[in-house]
Amino acid sequence: MFSSQLLMVVGLAASIVCCCPPSCPSGWTYLEKTTSCYKVIKKEGGLDQSEAQALCVSLGSNLTSIHSDEEHDFINDIAETSVNVSTWLMTMTGGVRTGGKATDWKWIDGTPFDYTNWAPKMPDNDWQTALQVYTAVGYPSWDSASLGPYSTSHRHWDDIRADKKFINAVCKRPATRQ
């Protein structure tokens, strides 16, 4: 009798723990596949990589890492802007170059650099140490005539200088269970 009551209590406790869905703080967006929360951050005049990371850390997060097509598409969807922009500097991520080779990259949050979605011909400069996503649909010359081989760059990655000011950045943090 005692063991069946104990089993019932353990089962009840497990169902209580499992019944609470993951949640995000107000203003954050949840992605079930990663059980993570994401927030697009902006600042008047833009953000460079160190400013963006500092802001993410102040929010209990890091600049985003990207590990799958689904996560990549999700980040593009939440960060995409329809504002006409006159800059190539779009959405900052937590990608950091660690050396001179095209494969020398890591995520600022320490997770494996196990997925890529580079634009054609990218990464192209070993002195560009940050990773951005082309998310602005209103760029004045998003057409194949003016962009040539870069015409398919929208929603893809580019290596870029970390000290440049970006339109926005995406922070990422684990979801919590309440």
UniProtKB/TrEMBL annotation:
Extent of the signal sequence: 1-19
Source organism (scientific name): Mesorhabditis belari
UniProt xrefs under InterPro entries: C-type_lectin-like (IPR001304), C-type_lectin-like/link_sf (IPR016186), C-type_lectin/snaclec_domain (IPR050111), CTDL_fold (IPR016187)
Keyword rRNA-binding: no
SMART domains associated with the record: CLECT (SM00034)
Keyword Signal: yes
Pfam annotation, one family: Lectin_C
CDD domains on file: CLECT
Limits of the C-type lectin domain: 33-144
Highest taxon listed in the record's lineage: Eukaryota
Name the record gives this protein: C-type lectin domain-containing protein
Keyword annotations of the record: Signal
